[in-house]
Design a protein that fits this description.
Length: 448
Amino acid sequence: MREQQRIGMNTGPRPWTPEEEALLGTLRDAELAAKLGRTEQAIKLRRSRRRIAPCQSPCRRWTPEEDALLGKIRDEELAQRTGRSVAAIRQRRTHKGILLAVRQRRLWTPAEDALLGTAPDADIAARLHRPLKSVQHRRLKLKPPLLGSKAPRRWSPDEVSLLGTMPDKKVARRLGRSLRSVKGRRVNLRIPIFNSTRHVWTSEDDRILGTRPDDQVAMLIGATVKAVVHRRAKLKIPPCARQAEKRSRSWNKAEDEIVRTHPPTSSAGLLDRSLSAVKLRRRRLGIRPINRRAWRAAEDKLFSQLNDLDIAEKLDRTLSSVENRRSRLKIPVPHPRWRFFTPEEDALLGTAPDAEIARRFGRHPSSVQARRLKLGLRYRTVRKRRPWTPEEDALLGTDTDTAVAARLGRALATVCIRRQKLGIPNFYWQRRSGRPRQHRSPSPPQTR
């Protein structure tokens, strides 16, 4: 009994015997752990505590029989026979300069090819002991149909003509094909992707080219002028006579005189020419750019006497030039054509329509509206309600509220509220209950 208790209480680690410690370092830790029935971690820990170096197993030398097999069979098969790694086999064969006399990959047999497509690729790969990618590559190479799949649908000329005319997703939805199939077919045919901003040229568009100027053609077909010029040059269509005449229009003496005496912008408008053409003509005639006229003291004195428009007309200057000079001199306008709003005018804003207040103030309606909106004032409308007459009250309840409202020219909600205020039941309730219509006089309105 005591012996059984002693054995049951001995649950600690198994002690090391001298024979077990003598084996440390003579074998690899994994082999020694399997031999002694201990864990590999326990072997490593005991060996490190005893400061015993691990077992260095010497490299196995190659025998002449193993060297004779190099290159004659596959490296994987030789590795299984000799118990060596595939990397060691390849390194030894490369060091010896021995080439493979057999294929490294296993050849496909006709029986294996016949199985392709009869089952899923994963099942065939497990049955033939081949990689899944190898089975897929072989099946795609031989192109047998997949199990349960339909034969690939060929592209018709009508379907090919739709490629590039609309987005690939829309083409795929219209043709009942996958987006990947449509995109791959378009790329293989080198058809550019559809661009909504790019104009698609038709035969009708090509007939218009050269019949009128390029800018008019671009406006008609909804394309840019540059696209029209490029398309016409690609089809070798000459420009119309009007455009050729405008392009080859020569300069005469009268036009040169206008160019000399007028600014470029006004010359372009008078001569119906582009601004760049006028500037080029001025450069060829040797006309220098117009220098800005310096302001004199006598001219500066006019800013305190006249407004900007009068100064521009008197000094033959542009209005923008006069306005810039006034802002630099910081001189206010002496007789402004506008005036500030007074507090009395601001108090009247929103009490009447803007047009009426504008007539009262002698201002423009837009000025009054802008001032009212700037102050955040809303137009307060005073609605004049039409009073109810005894004849109208007598009609309430004699018919539906909709019919009474249409007969009196009032809103449906107004009729309902008036009838409820007088205590008159609706028309449907009177017909259902058979009770006569009751009418009570409304209470007089309270004065405020």
